[in-house]
């Protein structure tokens, strides 16, 4: 089978997987797929290796042996092309900016074509991180050490960073509904806190999705950060989200948040309440994932071999109550 035949076959399979789950997302994956021939020619991509992840998300992750564009020295061999088919995304430009600021991210080039955003990255020969107590502390320290560089405003990217509230508030409300359906109490004051702290502005560029699935260890032992949601909001959001996410690894969210805050301090009021709001969101997400055992969350099942999810949900809600009342 030739490389271009396998590429076409893989692209069609991705369209079918996405369309099966969500007909509306099919238009997005079709537009990403339509952009591929031009990208392959423009970037001189050669030797299709395969898709990185076979799932039903409306984005492409394709691995090639080579990229032949002269001058594109950042990325030359063994590359990954990521394409989104919906709207301009800040992921590529923000990761590039963070790389310039000394944060460890993949070497990459990025751009847009016909409304599709693309990233061309080095293929990382990384290993996922084991979610042990020591690794959680180590990763927290590394991420918090990058915090100041990550969260320094980037005015020239304002157009492509999405406001935190636009993205998170609908998700938070859906999580609150899932918690209620699960018989948990979600006081009205928590809704106001979510509106206030997600929607209250803040000009820090945010990763927005800090979790073990989006960091990895390079062969030399250093960590590398990728898959930024590229949001704009209060700078301690990343710490809050990371801290809530570690609850499933039996890490107390307040302890993780305090540890991060020792490295990246924030004088702004409300940072701590943001942690409470995030704990509610994470508890609701776990309730949803528990009911679906969602295949898109293999990291969760890796981190929860012995079924700590119920304990994590209780801990998250307990933390939310102690912060938000
Ligand atoms: N440059 C890369 N090198 C090697 N593996 C990669 C690279 N980029 C992504 N991957 C692998 O693919 C997985 C999914 O990629 P990524 O986290 O970027 O997107 P996602 O979370 O699936 O999608 P979305 O962008 O919609 O959030 C990663 O967890 C990682 O295992
Ligand atoms: Mg990811």
Task: Describe the protein's topology.
Layout: H1 3-21, H2 23-43, E1 45-51, E2 59-67, E3 77-84, H3 91-100, E4 108-113, E5 116-122, H4 133-151, E6 162-163, H5 164-181, H6 188-199, E7 204-206, E8 215-217, E9 223-225, E10 231-233, H7 237-245, H8 253-263, H9 271-292, H10 298-303, H11 309-324
The protein binds adenosine-5'-triphosphate and magnesium ion.
Residues 213-214, 227 line the site of magnesium ion (MG).
Description:
The protein has 325 residues and is α+β, with helices and mostly antiparallel strands. The protein has 2 domains: 3-122, no CATH class; 133-324, Aminoglycoside 3'-phosphotransferase, Chain: A, domain 2 (Alpha-Beta Complex). 50% of the residues lie in helices and 16% in strands. It has 11 helices and 10 strands. It has helices spanning 3-21, 23-43, 91-100, 133-151, 164-181, 188-199, 237-245, 253-263, 271-292, 298-303, 309-324, and strands spanning 45-51, 59-67, 77-84, 108-113, 116-122, 162-163, 204-206, 215-217, 223-225, 231-233. The strands form 3 sheets. Strands 1-2-3-5-4 form a 5-stranded antiparallel beta sheet, sandwiched between helices. α5 runs antiparallel to α6, α7 (237-245) packs antiparallel against α8 (253-263) and α9 (271-292) runs antiparallel to α11. The model has no long low-confidence stretch (mean pLDDT 91). The structure holds adenosine-5'-triphosphate and magnesium ion. Residues 213-214, 227 line the site of magnesium ion.
């Amino acid at each position: 089978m030739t490389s271009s035949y396998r590429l076409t076959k893989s692209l069609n399979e991705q369209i079918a997987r996405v369309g099966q789950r969500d007909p509306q997302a099919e238009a997005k994956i079709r537009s990403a797929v339509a952009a591929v021939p031009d990208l392959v020619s423009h970037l001189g991509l050669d030797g299709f290796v395969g898709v990185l992840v076979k799932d039903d998300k409306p984005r492409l992750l394709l691995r090639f042996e080579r990229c032949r564009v002269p001058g594109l020295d950042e990325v030359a061999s063994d590359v990954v092309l990521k394409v989104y088919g919906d709207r301009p995304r800040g992921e590529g430009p923000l990761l590039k900016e963070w790389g310039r600021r000394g944060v460890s991210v993949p070497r990459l080039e990025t751009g847009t074509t016909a409304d599709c955003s693309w990233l061309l990255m080095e293929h990382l020969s990384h290993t996922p991180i084991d979610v042990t107590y020591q690794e959680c502390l180590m990763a927290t320290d590394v991420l918090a050490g990058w915090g100041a560089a990550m969260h320094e405003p980037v005015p020239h990217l304002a157009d492509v960073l999405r406001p935190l509230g636009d993205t998170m508030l609908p998700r938070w409300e859906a999580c609150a509904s899932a918690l209620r359906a699960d018989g948990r109490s979600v006081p009205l004051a928590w809704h106001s806190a979510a509106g206030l702290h997600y929607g209250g502005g803040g000009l820090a560029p945010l990763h927005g999705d800090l979790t073990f699935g989006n960091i990895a260890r390079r062969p030399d032992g250093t960590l590398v950060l990728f898959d930024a949601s590229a949001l704009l909001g209060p700078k301690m959001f990343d710490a809050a989200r990371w801290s809530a996410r570690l609850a499933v690894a039996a890490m107390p969210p307040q302890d993780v948040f305090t540890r991060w805050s020792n490295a990246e301090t924030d004088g702004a009021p409300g940072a701590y309440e943001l942690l409470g709001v995030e704990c509610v969101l994470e508890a609701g997400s776990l309730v949803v994932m528990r009911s679906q055992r969602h295949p898109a969350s293999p990291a969760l099942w890796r981190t929860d071999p012995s079924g700590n999810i119920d304990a994590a949900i209780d801990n998250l809600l307990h933390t939310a109550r102690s912060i938000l009342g």
